Amino acid sequence: MVPLIERAVQTHQLTEDELLFLLQSPQADGPLFAAADRVRRHYVGDEVHLRALIEFSNICPNQCLYCGLRAPNTRLARYRLTPQQIVALAQKAVQYGYKTVVLQGGEDPFFTVEVWTPILQQIKALGLVITLSLGERPSEDYRALKQAGADRYLLRIETTDKALYEKYNPGMCFENRLRCLRDLKALEYETGTGVLVGLPGQTLRSLARDILYFKELDADMVGLGPFIPNPDTPLQDAPAPQLAPALKVMALTRLLLPDINIPATTAMETVAPDGRIQALQSGANVVMPNITEGEARLNYALYPGKACAGESPTRCRGCLENKLRAIGRSVSQGSGWHTRKL
After folding, report:
1. Which residues is 221 bridged to in the sheet?
2. Are 213 and 144 in contact (CB under 8 A)?
3. Domains in the chain: how many in total?
4. Which of 12, 198, 208, 224 could pair with 194 as two cysteines, CB 3.0-4.6 Å apart?
């Protein structure tokens, strides 16, 4: 097992069966996490890139069975920030010291390209790198958004198991998801994707194929986390989430794509109080603190009990910087471009 991990460290290659073997082996956890941490340090260093997250709307027409924002959820108080509020939060991100903003929301039909264009232009004028997470769009929308100032785009594949994807994303097309990711790469976005780990019916072989897909796509960023059941969704009775499998998928992803950006996600911190720190010590190099304010901060309820939901943006950043210092890591003063983009 250890020679297999060391070969992956050197070659950044593993077969599907080798990935499956490591995913199946609890005794691989320690050596695997340590190896991923070494590879992370060698390729992207000890600096952690902080990206300010703005959750601009929890309105979504989709019916994804795992997501608290799903349209049939009538218990959720819906909100939509105005363009002026979004720009104002981006201005605060600059004051807080962030170099990148991440604009994330449900696939709210209000936010057309025409609405986004002046927002992105104003944010770009602040000197910020812009990451979008707006879901599936036509290729011409992605092109127009990039021309307006967007630099990065996050679109999780969620699972590369087509049957599982279409089961949990009713009304959505797996091939269209793949098309969107191909379009983003072709348009030279810094492209991020990722999966949920622990979906009911998901197999370890499926997760191995997910990791190989990240490499096939040549992803610039991979975000993943444990699936956390939401009581307001059809998957409310799914098994309790576990951190270790998500850490394992993340660590293997670091071995195969050594120079990409990998966030320590809020879901990891929600499952375990030190989840983000564990992730940062197992291959991760990015954290996305939430700077959304007020009720919107509480109502972007993908899953229950979201870590840090009740904290102010300033307190959240200060707490995070203290935690990073405690493990010998520092906050990057750069924008965190994927190293192959330098």
Report:
1. 192, 261
2. no
3. 1
4. 224
Would you state the pLDDT for residue 340? 57
What are the backbone dihedrals phi and psi of residue 23, each rounded to the nearest 5 degrees, phi first?
A: -65, -30
- 45 located within any domain: yes
Cβ burial, residue 160 (10 Å; 0-12/13-18/19+): buried
Nearest to residue 45, comparing CAs of 342, 269, 339?
A: 339
Q: How far is residue 326's CA from residue 274's CA, in Å, rounded to a whole number?
A: 12
Q: What is the DSSP letter of 187?
A: T
- The CATH code of the domain that includes 312 is 3.20.20.70
Residue 108 lies in a domain: yes
Structure tokens at 109: 């039909």
Whole-angstrom distance, CA of residue 307 vs CA of residue 309: 6
| Tokens coding 62 | 């989709």
Per-residue pLDDT tens over the stretch 68-122: 999 999 999 999 999 999 999 999 999 999 999 999 999 999 999 999 999 999 9
Which pTM does this prediction carry?
Answer: 0.95
The predicted structure's pLDDT at residue 305: 85
Which DSSP string do the residues of 25-58 spell out, in sequence order? -GGGHHHHHHHHHHHHHHHH-SEEEE-EEEEEE-
Joined together, the tokens standing for residue 192 give 């991020």
Mean pLDDT of 144-154: 98
211-258 pLDDT, tens digit each:
999 999 999 999 999 999 999 999 999 999 999 999 999 999 999 999
**12 within domain boundaries:** yes
Task: Write out the H or E segment, with its range, that includes residue 148.
Answer: helix 139-148
Tell me, yes or no, whether 341 lies in a domain: no
pLDDT the model gives residue 80: 98
| Predicted local confidence at residue 23, as pLDDT | 98
Tokens representing 288?
A: 């996305």
Q: In this structure, are residues 81 and 116 in contact, taking their beta carbons and an 8 Å threshold?
A: no
Q: Which domain holds residue 170?
A: 2-332
